[in-house]
Design goal:
By secondary structure, the chain is of the alpha+beta class. About 20% of the residues lie in helices and about 30% in strands. Strands 1, 2, 3, 5, 6, 7, 8, 9 and 10 form a 9-stranded mixed sheet that branches. A 3-stranded mixed sheet has the order 4-12-11.
Amino acid sequence: MAPSGLVKRSPAKILGETDSILSTIWWKDLVRDFRLLSESEVPAPYKVGIAFDTVTINPMEYLSWLRTELESRGVVFRRQYIRSLNEVRPFVGEGGLLVNATSLGSRSLIGVEDKTMYPIRGQSIVVEHAGLQEFITVRSGGGLSDHPTCITPRPGLTQPNTAFLNGTHQVGNWDTSLDMSLAKGIFERCSTVAPCLKDEGTKILMHNVGFRPDRKGGPRVEAERISLPLIRSDGLTPYLGENAEKEQNITVVHAYGMGAAGYQRSWGVAIEVLSLLKENM
């Protein structure tokens, strides 16, 4: 389990302009202390709200902790650009097992080429303010708009009073450039539900732009048997030399396409991937 300080139990609220948001809360029995907000607890201009307890993390510190834990168990990290499954032979060994968690890279990885993958562009702001201790999000109608409003308080050992202000939910947008007009809108929308953001002591720590790797049809978590070297009918597979022509069957366990719920799904996906690996050993 993650040590104290990296994970935080936080009170949470979801506010809506209409009661249609209630039809989307399929997970109400999975969270702690779920309840409907009374009319006096719902700030204008919103009409309905729910409350529950959730868990938040600080990705920068949490991921560092995960890496340290894995390295202490003998896992070796190596950064390398892979263009084709033909290039993974040195990593899979005689057992022929590989986990493909290449996210949006699965669109262009030769041998996978999953064109159902697409980005959801997210722009956000990280701020420091001791008063932001509650997760708050606003829903318009029954789902997410292109410009959602969401405040996520973050725990941390080095910066304990930070919060993540979101942001954007731009489906199919590959633009990685920072848009300061969008940043202004994010800050103004979040300030509506958390007026303390406009206090003099609020610090803007960083602006972020990134992609949530989503997939039409939902996440892909399954095993696939693949023969190497790859042979394409069009003959366009990159040549890797004579030593790469030896035939080998490998099992690829795919684990990608989690969209905006990568952290929420990560432990469950890891358990399922481990089960698939054991089945194919």
